[in-house]
Amino acid sequence: MQTDNIFRSILRALRRAWIPILTFALTYLIAVLIGIFLVHTGNAFALSSRDNIIANAQTSSILQAIHTGNRLHAALLDFGANLFAACTNTISGLTIIVPYPVAAYRGWVIGIVSVDSAHLSRLADPSSAFYYILTVILQLIPYSLAGGAGVNLGLAYLRPRPSYQGEKWLGLPKEAIRDTLRIYILVLPLFLGASLWEFLAA
């Protein structure tokens, strides 16, 4: 019975936040597609940005864990990094506007790494394409949920709908805060699954 109540409360939170979640997902997806298009058409700026991002990432603890063969550790580090980024997106969602350019940049980065170090497409090989596309989808979903939850919270602060009338905490409707936490019940395992897939299935 308690599990059913939690499940229903999560669905209710998703229904209330579906527009911000959808707009966040579309922003992310469009940016990914733009990034893919640019590198596959030989755009010099996109390709050089891709190379610089990969070069700067070589000293990260995640890649160091991969180089030592500890992919599980790398996956857990990636999970922590993604969760931290998602939390900042959720908090910045109080501004309503800020998370969207952040999502666009993150999506663009994901798009431009669709080519390898030789600038050859990772989408040319079916298995590589499947891995890349599924990784993008698995990341897009929790990032969209977290970002959308934050924007929903910001909207509830500015113009609370009837379902968010009532008690407040620091000016924020308590029910909107609870909805954010309910959505994070999904965000946490989705990010963990995405990181485990990305680093253990490679």
**Class based on secondary structure composition and strand pairing:** mainly alpha
Strand order of the largest sheet: 1-2
Binned strand content: under 5%
State the share of residues found in helices, binned by percent.
Answer: over 70%
The whole-angstrom Rg is 18 Å
Give the oligomeric state of the chains in this entry, treating copies of one chain as homo and distinct chains as hetero: single chain
What is the helix/strand order? HHHHHHHEEH
Can you tell me the number of structural domains?
1
Mean pLDDT: 91
Output the number of helix runs.
Answer: 8
Question: Quick one: biggest sheet?
Answer: 2 strands, antiparallel
Query: Whole-Å distance between the termini?
Result: 39 Å
What is the strand tally?
Answer: 2
Q: Spans with pLDDT under 50 lasting ≥5 residues?
A: none
Q: What global shape is seen?
A: globular
Q: Could you give a quick summary of the protein structure above?
A:
The protein has 202 residues and is mainly α.
Considering the chains and any ligands shown, give keywords for the structure.
202 residues, 8 helices, mainly alpha, 77% helix
